[in-house]
Amino acid sequence: MDIYLKKIRVVNPLQNIDGYFNIIIRDGIIEFLSQDDITEIENLKVIEGEDLVCTPGLFDMHVHFRDPGSTNKEDLLSGIQAAANGGFTGVLCMPNTNPPIDSVPIIEYIINKAKGEVVEVYPSAAITQGLQGKNLTPFISLAKAGALMFTDDGNCVVDSEVMRRAFEYSSNFDFLIGQHCEDKSLTQDFSANEGEMSSKLGLKGYPSVAEEIILFRDISLAKYCGNRRYHAQHISTNGSVKLIRWAKENGLRVTSEVTPQHFSLTEDYLQNYDTNFKMNPPLRTNTDIESIICGLQDGTIDCIASDHAPHTSFEKDVEFEKAPNGAIGLETALGVTLTYLFHQGFLALSQIVEKMSINPRKILNLPLIYFKVGEKANMTIFSLNEEWVVDKQYFKSKSKNTPFEGFKLKGKPKYVINNQKFFVCNL
pTM higher than 0.85 for the full model? Predict the structure, then answer.
């Protein structure tokens, strides 16, 4: 499909661009990009750019697609549809599938199944075989097959010697090591953040220090092993933000991500025992949210990632303590981010593009997206000011476990363009 984006606001901090342009895309390639008017539009699908923003395609570096193994919750193709519907053109999927992503054939299966789709799917691979936290996976062969990061996400590598060996093993190739920071000896059978709210509700708590202990240890190990690359996944506490800030100030190669739910929702939402608000890490306090927002503002936190974690309704529709942790987030991530960060004046639009498009690709050593004539079109187009109410019946995800059902958001994905494909978002 050949497309004409008419007088659309284009924002790409990589090129210091923030202005209104006319763009023609033919066969997936940018043919024309200028502030000059266009008179010849025959055979072009015209998209009026009023109130629309065009950015480099969004990238979510933390999703669970449950494929292989639990495709009743999500599979690669439904996950791709959910990602596109939320405005994303690229994702990094986590390895806690069944079987886990710890072998070359599983990586090849994922890459081949997703090839050529509107959303590019990249696999991460497990640090340890079977996600058991004991024996390392074959990093080199997994990386050659396409793994962009090594993490046992869903589990934490608790054994310090195993984590040290992971950093040492990665040193000659500069592999990226990610971590789900959780000292499980402190969080066993948790259901909520440890504090007044967990006591009030009679729920086993997850103390913030359980996240921070692992994060501090890992930063120390990364430094000891020669300043290795380390990525802290879905951080959630004030203390974690301070630790990462310290690491960066001391020249360590540490990056981090935060989810939209952890800068928009607090533990107070648990009062009705709605299991869609049960997640790992748990929703924290206003103090934690304030610290996370400061970390996003000053660059301590590099990325916004959804931690899209699908579960079926019958799994979630049980007693709070028995429900699995996790919420879907691909289709609400952009709306929540614009509502709670941009429209409340915490982040500029260029900063949001950095957190949701540029920085994830930089961290994963993926090609960056430039808007130039002759370049492949990889774009997210969204309305900055359209208000909408989250209604899960419009989700493309197989699962519907969203904490944002019924929330009124401001800012909505409209289209994605990538791999010569044009996708219309419908939320």
Answer: yes
